[in-house]
Write a structure and sequence with these properties.
alpha+beta, Immunoglobulin-like, Jelly Rolls, 11-stranded mixed beta sheet, 7-stranded mixed beta sheet, 21% helix, globular
């Protein structure tokens, strides 16, 4: 039945998503989730019902017939994470859908625009017999399992350079193509090509995983890449984390196998028939011009070995050899569900310094994760080498001592005009590049060296969309925002790395400690969902979650088993649920979480955990490293309690009544033991009284309400007595910022960070840092592009910008708008994309008034806190606030008037 819509309706569902993607490909969930936002020019718009139609053809959907699913009218305000509940979905098939909603008054909207998604491949048989193919095979005797941080006992393993192969298959297209879909992956990483062009924009694909458990594949729509007649599908496959040999720098050596490829190209013709081009014995292979590549050591390219046209039809591949059948990787083929890593920014050279006649230092002005793009001209056989680095020595040499060396790129010219090259299977963290064996094209001297036409820094990271923006009137804080943001961008890969050079590993503590800070800037739903899968794959039989995931290398001591790190396995599923409303991730991760909390229980003594790394890199009397100011048992047990507290809430969300009771009782035991061990009942000081010792109990809920104010006062007094200088480290600083902010001490946070005379953000900036450094003092023996310690980002958005989620809200359904006016900050503007739409704040403090613009997305509400002093007049859009039917007074405190508002834009003025 066609719905009759009245003229003038301005409300409509938009931004339809399937599995939180717009028109995605390769969805391998049999019951995907739908979502949408509501566009409207009205205020206080709330959804009261929805109806979803799904069809396997456009014709039925245009006629409002859902032959796959018609949800009928569902009375609900839910507009995110709605599970498909229709007919069985078929692998590789495309489906179309749309939605209409009803507002709170029962008025229907028009149908949304149509959206679509394509299913992935569910099982091995869906690959239609495609085989894993390779150039060479690695003997079992030369394969490693998990690498060790000591290479002394692995003999000849990982000494040989793996051939980086080219693969090609020529085939005919004789009929008109309706749609062509490529399902493909290569280990370690691959680049797919068709008819002379790269397919997609991905870099370092697929994302790295535990290859014995999971191998990710990518789905591409290549309908526009095919042509009538002869076509060529090709690929080049590098090593990634699948094979790391022992040349140059490496964090560890590993040999899981040689480069290997699998793909299925599904071609649908206009006559309804289907054809599949599969990897198999009819493919051919040859070495590529990449003569060396390592995720840790760099890449070498010999342009003399290029074979022009190898990925086009008509190429003579008589000298190429047939592929071999590779051993099938142990991991299950699963659809890549995260945004791919890609080249995101191109940074030009800011300055060139001549070091000597054959060496030139290029400065790009910004420390980033990425690669170089070289444009050069010269003679055949000439060699250019580039050493990237984030720091320099006193003699303007590249300093790789803290970032891993030797690492370099090498290019050998073919001598054919201007040649352009970028590495394909490696990346590094750098600001500078020392070029040897060439000189800038602008140099007039005749020395026979190749001429550098241009050298660019290509910033590579996860291509997830930007989620928010922040700026304020305090320029030091704006610079701090950029400092932290560059570290976030540089470490958003297919895991959340700690640094983009020496390690590139997924250290887990930062995932939850920095989770909210990152989320305000970038959509991390897909990355964090993958991280949960990575931890599930990494969990040991006894329940341990290692400190890194995927766990490619087995570290010793606390570097493998530290509760503050492994607890990401419990905190991350909660975080994804809290931020994005995906309850299914709680269900999926529940067995992992139960096993890990049981593991911690067995390791505890009288409910106290006394092992691990503790407050890593805190500021104490010694060089940074293991915790100096706070007992390991305090941080470990605090996180243990927090785990139990979250498990209680997750059990409640999943309606597991017995588990609610179990984990609540257990958490109360831990709380009692914690107080007995660490709290001085007379002074109300915890343990050593360090910033971390005092703030962690406050933040996670270990402090009884009766003494909370005194504990807060003690924390504040101790900070003031220490000249308001930072001492908390990797673990503690997150909780310090949270404890101060939630207890109304944002002015102190401002005072501690609005300075450059002691180690902290300002100190790093004054030292020349362009991305967040590993140590508060920005020393040269530590990483200078590190993710941890960026927790002020959350404070920027929540306290200065004033955008927060209500305590019991999920996915920002209900908001708090509460800007804190501190220090010399006279204005601030923030915006943040919630699952329901964009929330914005823009405020300014004048001598006699306060001005706040707010936008709340449809289908959500907010409590707005307006600062008042004495007798204040509050206006909204020029009229007294009590004149608006969309604004409801809640209460007045000493500092604020609090109102409840629905969706829409508001212009508040307090005089």
């Amino acid at each position: 039945m066609m719905l009759q819509i009245h003229a003038g309706i301005t409300t409509k569902p938009v931004k339809l998503s399937c599995e939180n993607f717009n028109n995605p490909l390769g969805i391998d969930k049999r019951q995907p989730h739908f979502g949408w936002q509501i566009a409207t020019d009205s205020r206080s718009v709330m959804q009261s019902a929805y109806r979803i139609l799904v069809a396997d053809n456009l014709k039925d959907l245009l006629e409002n017939y859902g032959n796959v699913w018609d949800s009928k009218k569902i009375k609900s305000d839910q507009s995110i994470q709605i599970k498909f509940n229709g007919s069985t979905l078929e692998p590789s098939k495309t489906y179309f859908w749309k939605v209409m909603v009803w507002d709170k008054n029962g008025n229907p909207t028009p149908w949304s625009e149509m959206s679509s998604w394509q299913m992935g491949l569910f099982a091995p048989q869906d690959w239609k017999g495609a085989a894993w193919i390779g150039f060479e095979e690695l003997p079992d005797s030369l394969k490693t399992g998990m690498a060790s941080d000591s290479e002394e006992k692995i003999g000849n393993v990982a000494i040989k350079r793996a051939v980086v192969p080219l693969f090609r298959k020529e085939f005919e297209i004789k009929k008109d193509v309706t749609k062509a879909t490529l399902f493909i992956t290569g280990l370690g990483q691959y680049e797919a090509r068709m008819n002379g062009k790269k397919i997609g924009e991905s870099f370092l694909t697929p994302g790295w995983t535990n290859f014995n458990k999971t191998v990710l594949y990518t789905t591409y729509d290549v309908s526009g890449n095919l042509k009538k007649g002869a076509n060529v599908l090709g690929a080049i496959v590098g090593n990634g984390f699948y094979y790391i040999n022992r040349e140059r720098y490496r964090k560890f050596a590993v040999a899981s196998g040689m480069p290997t490829l699998i793909c299925r190209l599904k071609v649908l013709y206009s006559d309804g028939t289907e054809e599949n081009i599969l990897t198999g014995n009819d493919w051919k292979t040859s070495p590529s011009p990449i003569t060396f590549t390592s995720i840790y050591g760099g890449e070498d390219y010999d342009a003399r070995l290029e074979q022009p046209g190898w990925d086009r039809a008509g190429f003579d591949d008589a000298s190429w050899k047939p592929v071999i059948n590779s051993n099938v990787p142990k991991g299950q083929l699963s659809a890549e569900t995260d945004y791919p890593v890609a080249i995101r920014e191109i940074i030009s050279t800011k300055n060139v310094l001549k070091v000597d006649t054959a060496r030139y230092l290029y400065d790009f002005g910004q420390n980033v994760s990425g690669i170089i793009e070289l444009k050069v001209k010269g003679k055949k056989g000439q060699e250019v080498r580039m050493y990237p680095g984030e720091l320099l020595t006193d003699k303007n040499e590249i300093n790789q001592s803290a970032s891993g060396g030797p690492y370099y790129f090498t290019y050998i010219l073919k001598g054919d005009g201007i040649e352009t090259w970028t590495p394909k299977f490696t990346y590094y963290g750098f600001r500078y590049a020392m070029v040897t064996g060439a000189c800038p094209d602008s140099i007039n001297e005749v020395n026979g060296l190749p001429k550098i036409v241009s050298l660019y820094s290509l910033h590579t990271n996860n291509s997830t969309p930007q989620n928010g923006n922040f700026t304020c009137s305090n320029e030091l804080f704006n610079k701090t925002f950029r400092l932290i943001n560059w570290a976030i961008k540089s470490n958003l890969q297919s895991v959340l790395t700690d640094c983009p050079h020496r390690e590139k590993l997924g250290w887990l503590e930062q995932t939850y400690l920095m989770g909210n800070s990152i989320n305000y800037n970038y959509d991390i739903y897909h990355l964090y969902s993958k991280l949960v899968n990575d931890m599930m794959d990494s969990q040991l039989a006894d329940g341990l979650i290692p400190d890194i995931s995927p766990e490619y290398v087995k570290f010793g001591n606390g570097f493998r088993d530290s509760p503050e790190w492994g607890s990401a396995s419990i905190i991350l599923p909660w975080l994804v649920y809290k931020l994005y409303g995906d309850k299914s991730i709680l269900e999926k991760a529940w067995p992992m979480m139960v096993r890990y909390i049981a593991y911690l229980g067995k390791k505890s003594e009288n409910n106290i955990l006394s092992y691990g790394l503790g407050d890593w890199y805190d500021l104490g009397p010694s060089s940074p490293g293991p915790a100096q100011l706070t007992p390991v048992a305090l941080t470990a047990t605090s996180v243990y309690y927090y785990d139990l507290k979250l498990l209680t809430q997750m059990a409640e969300a999943l309606h597991k009544a017995e588990d609610v009771k179990l984990y609540f009782i257990q958490s109360e035991k831990v709380k009692s033991s914690f107080s007995a061990k660490f709290l001085n009942k007379a002074t109300k000081v915890y343990s050593t009284g360090s910033q971390t010792s005092m703030s962690m109990p406050l933040s996670v809920g270990l402090v009884d309400e009766l003494i909370k104010d005194k504990v807060v006062d003690n924390l504040v007094d101790s900070i003031i007595a220490n000249n308001k200088a930072l001492t908390a480290g990797d673990i503690g600083f997150h909780f310090l910022v949270d404890a101060l902010a939630t207890n109304g001490k944002s002015q102190l946070i401002f005072d501690m960070n609005n300075r450059d005379d002691v180690p902290g953000y300002g100190f790093q900036l004054k030292s020349g840092a362009t991305s967040l450094t590993e140590s508060w003092m920005a020393n040269k023996i530590s990483s200078n592009n590190h993710l941890m310690l960026g927790h002020l980002m959350q404070w920027f958005y929540e306290s200065i910008g004033g955008i927060q989620q209500q305590k019991n809200s999920i996915a920002f359904k209900t908001l708090i708008i509460k800007p804190y006016i501190v220090g010399d900050i006279s204005s601030a503007a923030s915006d943040f994309n919630t699952p329901y739409g964009t929330v914005k704040t823009d405020w300014e403090k004048l001598s006699d008034s306060f001005h706040l613009n707010v936008t709340i997305p449809a289908n959500s509400t907010a409590s707005v806190y307006l600062p008042v002093t004495g007798k204040s007049i509050v206006l909204e859009d020029g009229s007294l606030i009590n004149k608006s039917k969309d604004i409801h007074f809640i209460k007045k405190t000493n500092e604020y008037l609090i109102f409840n508002v629905g969706s829409g834009s508001y212009d508040f003025r307090v005089k």
